Amino acid sequence: MATQTSSLRSRGMEMLMAYKQKPSIKLRNDLVRLNAGLVRKIAHRVSHQCAEPYEDLEQIGYLGLIRAIERFDPSQGCAFSSFAVPYIRGEMLHFLRDRGSTVKIPRRWQDLQKASQKLQSSLLRQYGRQPSDHEMAEALSISVKEWRQVKMANKNRMPLSLDATVCHQTDSTITLGDTLPDMHYQLLQALEEDRQQLQRALSQLEDKTRSAIEFVFFKGLSRKEVAERIGVSPMTVTRRIQRGVDQMITYLHPQTLQTDP
């Protein structure tokens, strides 16, 4: 057995050296077949740590193996298996990260979901139809209520796309994103409403008072500069601004008149 393993390693290294010197699809495919056991071993290990099917992980692992074959340098003196494992495992972990759920499903439910995938195929052949919830629950030795919870958790573990259609109109469709409030737009809308209210309040003021407020607060002029522009003293500018602000507050927040019954 040891001799056979050593022979395989030696053959594998010869193939890797040949591929490094003259890459070809045929030689790469031969190397993939030679190292398929490494992919299967890692896929089995990772499949016990997640809810993804083993078959999907195995297929993704082969992509990592191909990357390792293309980047391996035999002259570095490193064993190919040690070099390839991080590539294979990394490709699987990237796949799991991309499909990662924001909803954390209990480990027991993940195991039940994996077991159900195998049972559904055999029950489909047995009954000639999709098994009912009661039949699936009985096959898994759990209650119907828990089986339905497992199904619901697996169905909802991935977030919905904002492009998902929620309503069809005559000439258009409404997506999930269309129904969500745009906080930035709402803020801009509120600011625009405030601006319009201030503008209406300003328009109620006397011309010189309105000019004084606009020069000071909108254009950043000093009271002395404003006084020269509108032909009054700086003290008068201050009084006009104070009076104008009070008038605007009254306009924006009118007092409710109290009348005796």
From TrEMBL:
Domain of life (superkingdom): Bacteria
Protein name, UniProt field: RNA polymerase sigma factor SigF
Residues making up the signal peptide according to the UniProt record: none
Organism whose genome encodes this protein: Leptothoe kymatousa TAU-MAC 1615
Keywords, ordered alphabetically: DNA-binding, Sigma factor, Transcription, Transcription regulation
Translocase in keyword set: no
Transmembrane segments annotated in the record for this chain: none
Domain RNA polymerase sigma-70 region: 31-100, 118-183
Pfam family, one: Sigma70_r3
Keyword Transcription applies: yes
SUPFAM superfamilies: Sigma2 domain of RNA polymerase sigma factors, Sigma3 and sigma4 domains of RNA polymerase sigma factors
Domain named RNA polymerase sigma factor 70 region 4 type: residues: 195-247
